[in-house]
């Protein structure tokens, strides 16, 4: 049995998202396995980012249920939670296809913002922080250490005090992942992390993701178009087309699924005739 | 020379008060891109709360000095706390329900909130001027009129108090914004509210806290205004608010040091204009300078031009 049926970290059940008359996602169900790297793939406009937006509270789904199973056995119904609680309580973090760093803040500050909640608690909602309570200094130091650890990990430690907007594109992508990791997530959702990266950067990204999964124990759900990335690092692949799931399984299974090939490459003309006969056209 | 020095002292004092109010405008604009027109009236409410506390506690200049200082500190803190509640309430009632609606809606409720506050104070406290006996009389005489003009330069204790309190608060406040987690959260909300909330920051609460901080600084300005001029009425918030808003725009709206600098400049321009040219046209002078600066530097003195990413 596969980990995503046995021990899922995220279960999506009958998710439907309509925008007026447009059905972006129709009755979609799949699981994300704990400790897996799960890839969500599909042609452009298949509804992948919409799934992400539903999971992270950007959209309220029209129908369906999204359940996050945290490792401490707590369950969260994500479709009912305001977005800031999804990160703070359910421990789901995400990155964006178009990078959304806080460009005017330094790299270190970007990573510190992600640790806002524990710091606020430790500083007694700033009041203790103003008077310099010891627990606040300790928490602040831990937060800085954690931020520096991740900066070191992504190889940007020496640029810690530079504004994030000044970084080259590939570095910004990795910084965004580091920032998401600083919020201490159990599930990390990455929207096209390899988009626009050169082969070297793409390789670095793969090793970073594998490190996050292996050493940090964080499960990863990612949207990706780069099939080399998908096939190399993912344990589980879910394929969407026109808002519906057309395939779900290991990379090997998915690669050889005729429906997937049809969705990506189209079908030969004879088959179209066959299908048209079937539906009576 | 003596005359110039005196005007400089007066200008810096007035500028400090404008600066304190301007911070409230600039922070709110920074975080939600809206001009909080009720902010001037929050300043007025702060001044009234201070006056009520002073009268109730029976604080007068004849008290022993230590007791007077203690009483003023207590009044400052209580007035900051109470005025913050007003600021928080205005945000909660007039602005938060309209977040996400079209841009002009909160502008209209802001004007509404301003009228409500003015009328509430007018009805509950009366429309007449409220005078206060000078709390901190006296001062240093810096020049005994020795020069050929024979002009006496005075630095009053209340002016020292205003300049010191303002400086301390501005330093503390800048530290708060730059160094604490709350300040970082605020700056992140300024840049990308949606992303901040995806990182677990409660954006609504951060915005509320911005209003609370702005209101508490305005209440300090209110107490300082009361001590300096010794008379307030329900309408002082309007002109002070417009001046502070001008200061915020002049310094570059959204920029914290800009608000302080802008406040100082507006205070100086006003004082020097009325000192050397005419008192009647001091407002004209302040606003003309604003217009000229904005023609040549549309982002204000310290504002950053908005960079559109393509």
TrEMBL record, chain A:
It holds the Pfam family ABC_tran. It comes from the Bacteria. The keyword Phosphoprotein does not apply. Keywords: Amino-acid transport, ATP-binding, Nucleotide-binding, Transport. One of its GO terms (molecular function) is ATP binding. The keyword Lyase does not apply. SMART domains: AAA. SUPFAM superfamilies: P-loop containing nucleoside triphosphate hydrolases. Residues 10-267 form the ABC transporter domain. InterPro entries: AAA+_ATPase, ABC_AA/LPS_Transport, ABC_transporter-like_ATP-bd, BCA_ABC_TP_C, P-loop_NTPase. PROSITE patterns: ABC_TRANSPORTER_2 (PS50893). PANTHER family: CONSERVED COMPONENT OF ABC TRANSPORTER FOR NATURAL AMINO ACIDS-RELATED, HIGH-AFFINITY BRANCHED-CHAIN AMINO ACID TRANSPORT ATP-BINDING PROTEIN LIVG. Belongs to the ABC transporter superfamily. This is ABC transporter ATP-binding protein. It comes from Roseibium litorale. The lineage of its organism: Bacteria, Pseudomonadati, Pseudomonadota, Alphaproteobacteria, Hyphomicrobiales.
Automatic annotation (TrEMBL), chain B:
Pfam families: BPD_transp_2 (PF02653). The chain crosses the membrane at residues 12-35, 42-61, 67-90, 102-121, 157-177, 284-302. It is found in: Cell membrane. Signal peptide: none annotated. The keyword Transport applies. InterPro entries: ABC_transp_permease, BCAA_transport_permease. Keywords: Amino-acid transport, Cell inner membrane, Cell membrane, Membrane, Transmembrane, Transmembrane helix, Transport. It is a multi-pass membrane protein. The keyword Transport applies. Belongs to the binding-protein-dependent transport system permease family. LivHM subfamily. This is Branched-chain amino acid ABC transporter permease LivH. It comes from Roseibium litorale.
